[in-house]
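note to self: dont lose this again. the chain is below, predicted strucutre after it. 107 aa total, dont forget to put it in the shared folder this time
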Amino acid sequence: RIYIMDDGDLFPYLHSTPVVPEWPLFARQDLDRIVAEEISAALTNLEYHVVVGRAVHECLDAARSAAERNFCETAPSTHFLKDARCDTTRELAELAYRAGVAGHHSG
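---
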């Protein structure tokens, strides 16, 4: 693959995986280790919730009636993704989708 950066230049390094931005994070020393691990896991799993959020939005875009729109808004996550994570709520899927759109997340 050839990747073009935002400024139009070619990505200057050889690579065999998709080029994604690096988001370095750190935890303050006074932050509880368990909290830091939970935050890390939540960020790592964000891409799974994005898939459901994207499918919900596609459903809403395709809806032709109020009944279809209501279905899209109330169907369980597993309707949109058979293997959806058990912790994927409607709110989390929407939040992940909006974060993906705003940050150009390609999960």
